Every structure is written in C-alpha cells, then in structure tokens.
Amino acid sequence: VTTELTAHYEGTPVIDDALRARAAKVIPGGMYGHMATKGLPAGYPQFYARSEGCRAWDVDGHSYIDFMCSFGPIILGYGHPGVERAAAEQRAQGDTQPGPSPRLVELAELLVDRVEHADWAMFAKNGSDANTIAVTIARAVSGRHKVLAAAGAYHGSAPWSTPVLTGVTPADRASVAYFRFNDIESVRAAVDDAGGDVAAVLISPFKHDAGFDAELVDPEFARQLRALCDRIGAALILDEVRAGFRIAHGGSWEAIGVAPDLSAWSKAMANGYPIAAVLGGAGYAEGASSIYVTGSFWYQAVPMAAAIATITTLGDVDGVARIVRTGTRLREGLAAAARAAGVGIRQTGPVQMPTLTFEGDHNYARSNLFCSTAVRQGVIFHPRHNWFLSVAHGDEDIDAAVEAAGAGFEAVSQQFGGS
Length: 419
Ligand SMILES: Cc1ncc(COP(=O)(O)O)c(C=O)c1O
What we know:
Elements: H1 2-8, H2 14-26, E1 48-52, E2 55-58, E3 63-66, H3 81-93, H4 103-114, E4 120-124, H5 127-142, E5 146-150, H6 170-173, E6 176-179, H7 184-194, E7 198-203, E8 206-207, E9 215-216, H8 219-232, E10 235-239, E11 262-265, E12 276-280, H9 285-290, H10 301-316, H11 319-341, E13 345-348, E14 355-358, H12 365-376, E15 379-380, H13 395-416
Parallel strand pairs: 3-15, 5-6, 5-7, 7-10, 10-11
Antiparallel strand pairs: 1-2, 2-3, 4-12, 8-9, 11-12, 13-14
The structure holds pyridoxal-5'-phosphate.
C-alpha cells in the first residue's frame, strides 16, 4: 500500500496550488478556521476531491489514509452506504420543509433511548450552537449568569467561548470563568469568585487541547464536580461535541457513574451530516422550552435521517469496541515503530482519539517533521490536534499507517537524534 501511495505522491500539487492562489483573492487569509493548512508543515493538501471509507483524495489525485475524519464527524467512514441510503431516501421525500419531518421525533426518541441522562432532545447545527443552547437553558432554569468552563476542553467559536479573543468584547466574556481540568480546588476557587452566581459548570469528557498531551478524566474529580453542582444548584453540562459516540455508545461519563444535567453533541452523530443536539434531564425540560433558539436550517430532515442511521449502525456493529480495537493496534504499532527508531514519544487520550507528542519537542519541530513525512507517504496525521479513528479503519490501514509513521520516526531520529 505504501509503495502505491508513495508513487501517487510523485506529482506536484498543481491544482491545489492554483486553488490556493484563487482562494487568496476571495477567501479571507486564503482559508480560515480549523481546516486551514497554512499552520501545518509542508505537504498537506488544502483541497480534497473525494473521500471514501478511511481514504481521501486531494484535488491532484494523491490518495491518503485519513486519521482526522474531518476532525471527528466521520465515524463510520466517508460515504457509508447505510447512512447515504437513509439520507438519499429522506432527500427524495423532503429536507428543508414547512416544518420538521417525523425524523425529528424519531431521532429524539433514539437519543433518549441511548443516552442515560437524557429525557429530551433539541437540535441545531454545530457544537458551538449546542453548548450555547445548553448554557442558555442553565441560565433560564437558575436565573444566574456565570458559566465555569474547563480550560483545554474547547467549547466552541461563539464570542463567549472562542479561544481567540480578537473581535470579542469584555462584555462577551464577562460571565465566563475557567477552571483547570481534573483540579477540583480550581473549580471551588472559581465558584467562590463567582459569589454564588453560577448557572453552569461546563466540561468535556476528557482534556484535549491542541498542542498538549491529552488527559483522561479522573473519575473522583467527575464525582466531586457532580456533588459540587448539586450543592450550589448549578447545571453540570457535558460537552460531548468531540467525544460523543466515540468513547461510549451513550454518555461518555456513564461508565464512571456521573450523569450531567445537560449535554451538547454534534460531530460524529450523523457521520458528516450537519446536525447538533442538546440533551437534558426532565428537570430542565421546562427551562428548555422557555428559551428562544432556532435557525433556518435546524429542522432539515436529511441530517436527522443520517443521524438515525449512524447511531443505529454504531449500536448494531458495536462501533466503539471496533474503534477501540483498531485504535489499540495503532497505539501499539506506533510505540514499536518509535522504539525501533529510538525516538521518545508520548501517546495520550483515548485510543479512539489519539494524541501523539514527542519528548523534547520544541515548537513542534519533531511532530511537524513526523507528520510531513507521513503525509508524503499517504497518511494524514496532525502534528498538534488529536486524531480520530473510524469504524472504516481496518487492520491493513492501521498497518500501512504504522509503516508511514515508521518513516516519520526515522526522519525525526536522523534530524534530531534518538532520545
Ligand atoms: C469539545 C468541543 N466543543 C465544541 C466544539 C465546537 O463545535 P463546532 O465546531 O461544531 O461549532 C468542538 C469542535 O471541535 C469541540 O471539539
């Protein structure tokens, strides 16, 4: 596989270069947001022509095994036949209509069935929407203002949540304070600072800030957080946008016995179709019905049909277990390849969403070299962000990726020496 992919990579990115030049004239900065490749090392294509299963083809025809899954949404593989069939059937009936289709109710019923803490669901389009709605519901219920959010657990690109403050006013942030993940004392300090005005505590299932090792939640911390929210009467909101349906087939903290009051979902729930959800317990239903949130495209039936097909399929094939198995194979393969090259690495986070960092790395020089070598071998990793695996990654894809990674580790070893 590697030989074939390497052969593919002989050509220069003529079409990609031409599109970048055109984009520079009509797209601010040439490209914006998390898919901009300008911060990545050389070799990453910006534009893609096609994708299928765990593979993607750039506009110049190079083929890649993709370990980003569009930054999470693709969980069954690009163009999954079952999801595409459900979407096509719904599209033939209607998508954006005078009102929602029956899929709205069916999807809410399915989520309430699969996610333990949920008694109801509301739908939107993006993770940022879902977190904003959850926070608004918490404020409506409590009559309070402040949100205490976990640092390093990304909560979205709305003015109240974006990590980049350019264009954001102090007023936008006045009701948000941050605490440290897995540090209950920092939560208590934030509660004290808020002087009793805490509407919600917002956290993701694990810490996953780009450029750092990932950190799994300490179950004891999660339990203390639950108890603290109960004591002060604040909503515990779990931001499941990135981890949802990859960590568990249901709520990510169900295994540790901690139920949030509200949860925000998006990315993987419809295998790439645009949809987000807010789920909540019965005690928050009245508050949820009292706020005004909506959007022109929030009732689209096709993404709801795709979500029903995605979640049902994930349950039927035990998707999480399958991804854990291939993720473990990748983790073990990478560890062996790094050892063989004499390169010190750390692998953190769940195997379904791995984070790879290099010992002694400064300015990501080692991870950049590793990733640019791998991408030229036809494998897309990311030098700072966590990666994502899908059900479509088979053993042979993992083995080909480990081979490309081995070339990356060798390049690091040659340039920086072993560690
Ligand atoms: C944990 C988390 N919360 C919120 C968001 C924002 O979601 P979206 O980009 O769909 O608005 C993301 C996106 O990466 C995320 O990972």
